[in-house]
TrEMBL record:
Its cofactor is Mn(2+); Mg(2+). It is an enzyme of class 6 (ligase). The keyword Nucleotide-binding applies. GO terms for molecular function: ATP binding; glutathione synthase activity; metal ion binding. This is Glutathione synthetase. Residues 136-327 form the ATP-grasp domain. Transmembrane segments: none annotated. Keywords: ATP-binding, Glutathione biosynthesis, Ligase, Magnesium, Manganese, Metal-binding, Nucleotide-binding, Plasmid. Its EC number is 6.3.2.3. It catalyses: gamma-L-glutamyl-L-cysteine + glycine + ATP = glutathione + ADP + phosphate + H(+). InterPro entries: ATP-grasp, ATP_grasp_subdomain_1, Glut_synth_pro, GSHS_ATP-bd, GSHS_N, PreATP-grasp_dom_sf. The keyword Metal-binding applies. Pathway: Sulfur metabolism; glutathione biosynthesis; glutathione from L-cysteine and L-glutamate: step 2/2. It comes from Sinorhizobium sojae CCBAU 05684.
Length: 348
């Protein structure tokens, strides 16, 4: 099996990225991997589709640093190949990273992913589903019961009124964004710097204002779902708690949050079950839920991370389960001779 990992850039990949660990797991199971970036697709006049793939020459690396070092060095082999030479196109980019500097790249994964799926390549997560999730409006499609009270607007008057109606304060963040960038806790509508915060946070468009959840002080739980169900091995779940730095409302690891062990209770599993029908319908193969108390703050469908942190805490690398699932999907595709739609196959 050959897996193509679609990422923002090879230079930007890091050893602690989940994508890196997935690539290593694939290599360890005897598969081939290549990396593809937004500028690497070709659609020729005869409707044939190709990719400019970066692969490795020589021995298969076994460590994250070795893998990325090889990809970024002269050991890397760059060649243009027919898309049909790839079995799985794994979309692991973060569109929000390109929104400001390379707006042309934001929709490349979903647009070319659709074309690849139409040509019989397994594309995960399903590009049609991902197209619906290009920003946090997607979150509003899940049951109200599991979502914090939310306002989406660019009007500072609307936001002030929302803040005034929530005595616990609100969290303000961009509709399009990730990694905890431009996320603010607002205590009241009389916040001295509210106008400045509004200008910074709204630079990319619409804003989300959410009722502040007191439980967030203790951090959130990142729980992975695969094929719509919690990812686990022998009763150990692919999950960890993200603890925010002192004085910070953000628990993102990239924003100085720290990982700790998480207890996955029946209540947490019940929350995940409430999200399952839509995730399955939309072909969301691998998803990261951010849970605080009885609410879900985020549904991460593009490039959820955390496998290295989980492995360090619980001693289980769940990358192997993911690659095994890809093997099974390829088997099902061959068994049904391509008659199962990509969105359906994505969560089987």
């Amino acid at each position: 099996m050959r897996i193509a990992f679609f990422v923002n850039s090879i230079e930007g990949e890091a050893p602690y990225y989940t994508t890196t660990w997935l690539a290593l797991a694939a290599l360890a199971r005897g598969h081939e991997v290549c990396y593809v970036t937004p500028g690497d697709f070709v659609l020729r006049p005869d409707d044939s589709m190709l990719i400019r793939a970066t692969t490795l020459d020589g021995a298969k690396p076994k460590k994250p640093e070795t893998l990325l070092g090889a990809l970024k060095s002269k050991q890397a082999k760059i060649s243009t190949i027919e898309l049909g030479e790839v079995d799985v196109l794994f979309l692991r980019n973060d569109p929000s990273e390109d929104a400001d500097s390379r707006p042309w790249a934001v929709y490349v994964g979903t647009n070319f992913g659709r074309l690849a799926a139409a040509r019989g390549i397994i594309v995960l997560n399903d590009p049609e589903g991902l197209a619906l999730a290009q920003n946090k409006l997607y979150f509003q499609g899940f049951p109200e019961l599991v979502r914090p009270t939310t306002l989406i607007s660019r009007s500072i008057e609307e936001i002030r009124a929302f803040i005034d109606s929530h005595s616990r304060g609100v969290v303000l963040k961009p509709l399009q964004g990730s990694g905890g960038k431009n996320v603010f806790k607002i205590g009241s509508k009389d916040e001295v710097n509210l106008n400045q915060i509004f200008e910074v946070a709204s630079g990319g468009g619409y804003l989300i204002a959410q009722d502040f959840l007191p439980d967030a002080v203790a951090g959130d739980i990142r729980l992975f779902l695969m094929n719509g169900r919690p990812l686990e091995r022998d009763g150990v779940y692919a999950a960890f708690r993200r603890i925010p730095a002192k004085g910070d409302v953000r628990s993102n690891i990239h924003a100085s949050g720290r990982p700790e062990a998480a207890t996955i209770t029946p209540e947490v599993l019940a929350i995940a079950e409430k999200l399952r029908p839509k995730l399955v319908e939309d072909g969301m193969f691998l998803v990261g839920l951010d849970i605080v108390g009885d609410k879900v703050l985020e549904v991460n469908v593009f490039t959820p991370g955390g496998f290295p942190e989980i492995a360090a805490i619980v001693g289980v690398d769940f990358s192997d389960e993911v690659i095994t699932a890809l093997e099974n999907k390829l088997h099902l595709q061959e068994l049904y001779r391509g008659r199962v739609p990509n969105r359906t196959l994505a969560t089987l």
